[in-house]
Specification:
The complex is a heterodimer of chains A (403) and B (82). Chain A contains 9 helices and 19 strands. Chain A has 403 residues and is an alpha/beta fold. The chains are: A alpha/beta (403), B mainly beta (82). Flavin-adenine dinucleotide is lined by residues 25-31, 49-52, 56-59, 61-65, 193-194, 222-226, 230, 245-247, 281, 324, 326, 351, 353-357, 403 of chain A.
């Protein structure tokens, strides 16, 4: 019985060594997954540094939706690999991630939106992703609590239904990767802020932190909302603008909703957790900012739009709301890989409002890039130089409702 | 955090009356190289700290103006006509 109350540390604390083979900046899902897959390749002299606590960035603040029903072939193939890893990740990390593949539904309230969803469904099916357009009778059967009346302000005409999509316990994913990386010898250093990156002849040689200087030949920028501030340390301006994104949870209710519901027209998405709370998200704040404080207008809009879909929730109380930072890119796709002219500086950024689901596959691919020195095919479309080459990967249609 | 912006014409109003126009950066000359145009079109300073930016008073006098805002706290330091 006393065992239950024993404090169990998931990862150890270490003195900061003066040399590491790889320094990963950012202890979110991306940084920690990269460290874990590097360790699986046998590279364990690795530090993951974070200026605050593990999971203090967007990885501990997101709405935990996982899906692969994107729009471009590059995007669909990439995110689907991540879903496949998530399906066995709890087992692999020996940590309960509460992954619930309950299904994901994107609503259409206009004819134009139906056409957009049809394109996505076709692209998805061609790439082997389970995804199809469904109509009001089936929607009503799957989500009986939703207002399907034809005289609603924005009647629901159709939906893109993606059965393998779902929700996971985001904190558990972060902790699971951290614990597994720690077991294999990776050093995790919270409260260690990076202040500068040293270079010599175009090659990264050191990282300056608030706890001392580290010599290293490889640095991974996995700082999401803060990635521009790190890139600036090596003289690079990224195509990124940081916007806050907010979310809220309600008090717990009896289980009544077992699908993730998304409406681009109403700018809202809703899911119910295993604890019964509703998790509700909206769009990014309409101005850039590094402030993590939440706002009243968000609460008002989210409540109004949720009630448009679920009038039955009128009396439900909100428990709390919060905000996180999102590194938005012009095409709503990430930026991964090396940077011309700065050897040893690797980007895993541009995760915007959709990067949690990509943590596992990104970590795996960035680790492979470091080990082999070659950019894996799966992530080549997301290289930084795509902007100069006019080869954007436009995912706005599938990613603008923020999850 | 939600905040107020002082339109040079109308005075202090909720940020939700305005449209954010992004950080201010200079357009390169026509003769600029492809790299310079790429930088202009896509790269951003995205500064954490005082940032010079464009705002448009959408639900008011409908004019564009400039502001300096501390992006870490959303404190608006200054607003002025372009
Ligand atoms: C409200 C909200 C809802 C979201 N919903 C979803 C969703 O449903 N599905 C989905 O897939 N994605 C979602 N996202 C996006 C997703 O959360 C992020 O894209 C993802 O978590 C990014 O992970 P990361 O590891 O790259 O960065 P983060 O988790 O943000 O970690 C970056 C870390 O870098 C650290 N750092 C910054 N500067 C420094 C420095 N100078 N030195 C050292 N460390 C530094 C920070 O402290 C932070 O811990 C959502 C985001 C938000 C905010
Ligand atoms: Zn005005």
């Amino acid at each position: 019985m006393l065992q239950l109350f024993r404090i169990q540390r998931l990862w150890r604390t270490h003195a900061l060594k003066d040399t590491y083979d790889v320094v990963i900046i950012g202890a979110g899902v991306h940084g920690l997954a990269t460290a874990y897959y590097l360790a699986k390749h046998g590279i364990t002299n690795v530090a993951v540094v974070d200026r605050w606590y593990v999971g203090s960035g967007a990885s501990g603040r997101n709405t935990a939706i996982i899906r692969s029903n994107y729009r471009t072939p590059e995007g669909v193939a990439f995110y689907d690999e991540s879903v496949k890893i998530y399906e066995h990740l709890g087992e692999e990390l020996n940590y309960n991630l509460l992954f619930s593949q309950q299904g994901h539904m994107t609503l259409a309230h206009t004819d134009a939106a139906i056409n957009g969803l049809r394109v996505r469904a076709e692209n998805n099916v061609l790439l082997g992703v389970n995804s199809r357009v469904i109509w009001p009778d089936e929607i009503a059967r799957l989500v009986p609590a939703m207002d399907m009346s034809a005289n609603a302000r924005y009647p629901i005409l159709a939906a893109l239904y993606h059965p393998p999509g779902g929700i996971i316990r985001h904190d558990a994913v972060v902790w699971g990767y951290a614990a597994a990386a720690d077991r294999m010898g990776v050093h995790i250093h919270p409260l260690t802020e990076v202040q500068g990156i040293g270079r010599s002849n175009g090659q990264v040689i050191s990282v300056k932190t608030t706890r001392g200087e580290i010599k290293t030949g490889a640095v991974v920028n996995a700082t999401a909302g803060w990635c521009s501030t790190i890139a600036k340390m090596v003289g690079v301006d990224l195509p990124v603008v940081t916007h806050p994104l907010q979310a809220l949870v309600t008090e717990p209710l009896k289980p009544f909703l077992d699908k993730v519901i998304v409406s681009a027209t109403l700018h809202v998405y809703v899911s119910q957790t295993d604890r019964g709370e509703l998790v509700i998200g909206e769009e990014i704040n309409p101005y850039s900012s590094y402030s993590n404080r939440s706002t009243l207008p968000f609460l008002e809009h989210a409540a109004e739009h949720t009630l448009a879909l679920f009038p039955c929730l009128k009396q439900v109380r909100v428990l709390r709301q919060w905000a996180g930072l999102c590194d938005m890119t012009p095409d709503y796709s990430p930026i991964m890989g090396e940077v011309e002219g700065v050897k040893g500086f690797i980007l895993d950024v541009g995760w915007g409002t959709y990067g949690f689901k990509a943590g596992p596959i990104s970590g795996k691919m960035i680790a492979e890039l470091i080990v082999t020195g070659k950019t894996p095919d799966l992530i080549r479309p997301f290289r930084l130089s795509r902007f100069r080459e006019d080869a954007l990967v436009g995912e706005k249609a599938a990613a603008a409702v923020s999850h | 955090m939600s905040f107020l912006i002082s339109c040079p014409n109308c005075g202090a109003r909720s940020v939700y009356e305005f449209r954010f126009g992004g950080e201010i950066h200079d357009r390169p000359p026509v003769s600029a190289s492809e790299d310079e145009w790429t930088q202009y079109l896509y790269a951003r300073k995205n500064k954490s700290g005082p940032q010079e930016e464009w705002w448009y008073h959408r639900a008011g006098c409908r004019t564009w103006f400039k502001a300096v805002r501390e992006t870490a706290t959303n404190t608006v330091i200054e607003t002025r006509w372009p």
